[in-house]
Amino acid sequence: MLNRNKLFPKPRRICAFDLLPIELVHVIFNYFLAQEILHSFTNVSDYVDSILFSYSSHRLNFSSISKSTFDLVCRYIRPSQVISLTLSNANDTSGQSDLFLTHFRIEQFIQLRSLRLIEIELDSLESIFSNLTHLTLLRSLTYETNGIKTKCPNWIYGYSGMIINVKSCFEETAMRVLPRLNVSNLEIDVAKKLPRLRHLTLGKSNYGEINRILSQVPQLRSLNVSLQGDASHIHHLSFCSQLNRLALKIDDSLISMTQMERLLPNLTQLINFELHAKGRRDLADGHRWKVLTEGLVTFNFKFQIYSSLDDLTLSSFRNEFWVREKRWYVAYKEEYLFSIPYFAPVEVHCSSVSLLSVWKTANDTSFYENVTKLNLSPCPSEDNIRTISTMMDLGCIQQLTISKLNHILFLNFYLLSMHCLHTLCINGSLSLDYIEQIRHFRFEQIRTLKISSNSKITDYFIEELLRIFPCVKHLYVSCLQSRAQMIRLIDGFQHLSSASFTITSWHQENERHCYFEPELLIRDSRRLTRGTYRCRFYRSMRGSQSYDIHIWIEEKVSSSSFFVLVLNAFHLKLNFSSDNCVG
């Protein structure tokens, strides 16, 4: 029988990448996250596909990822190809860790070097922590949380015992994993030597806890720590002699320049220093700091000084050493003395254009180069906005906050040049008069819409929002009156990827059902009828009568583009499966 493949061979897909050696393609891949590699390089050519299939240094960062992309990556990636993993149960990816663990077990990631966990739910934590010891190559572990998330409150489901068990499991596992880590960001007391640890970030710790931990990390190179309580003996801390980077925040005590003069000479290898503290007037002495910091490459500080500083004192930061030799620039505003641009503001309030009175050793460009947020609350004026436009580049603004919806018109002249603007926060009145003034506009650049107000939101207002902001992908609303309004917003915003709502006055029996079956809240949604979402229902805070609902939604992408992505990934796997067949 004639072999059809020999008579009609498949045309080879080729491209310019085929001229590159495998090692160079791997270097290119190293600059991209796994989802970016998947979208950009799959099905480019047979040669690139073969490299992609064998590539074993994927980095998965699922923070703020769309559910469609998350699902695609989970279908395509093999755990043994992953060296870095970030999981997040933040509000815009609610329920992610639970979904991830339906695809994989954490112990399958045998090549994993770095693991970062953000606001992970209790059930997922238990599964992850109990299997961390299987990750023998793990060198970096970060656990970020403002509190343990649970699907149900303790009065409905007895989580107290489970929380104790998970904390115990975590501490036991951490003590077994920590000795082989290079980087750690954990809130845990250290009871034995950690000879490999080079970089450590601690949570809030007192003097005794910090000293105890420092005695167990003889090779520490970098430390980020927040000192709580009495700081009078800070110069007695037993810092490792090899420490070259220190970020120190002191919250509860006033420090003096004398204390710094006793501390820093002990750190002979230090080249990068960051200090955030409250202090006495003598901290504002640029001449004394010059003596202490001549050997540093970077020095960033933010001091809260309760005494007023005069120009004579501040001029000690405007000499040859600070401005020309080191190029360390300083600003003073409202009792804060700080480095710029490192501690420069990221948000500017239109009502306080008294910013012109800020004392600084750099020009406006340096002072405002970090600004990405503009707040027009409560009452903007054309003069203020015109002044702001001369002080900074409005093209860098990413988030705009207004108290009345029509205030966005104050920026109408600048909107075309504000190409980075993607987030709009409305913190105030939802009057129909204001929405009538902008009903003929379309703000297609807005991808994130946040509405926080004490006003009642009406059905008409919702319909106008859907027209005026047609491209919203992330929605946060704290003033809904009914479940029907929530469903209308979900179905009406065609590109929605995540949504968070706050609803008040819920009956306890309804609450009980919603914790166990949050899908009941959105059962009437036309868009979410196929299980293409994850939903979580939380009480806002203990004793509160308001409830937060977070939904992670599969985007409505065009069927053709999504089919091509899935088909490409399937084609890649199929090719290698058939190539490996014998006979």
From TrEMBL:
InterPro entries: LRR_dom_sf. This is F-box domain-containing protein.
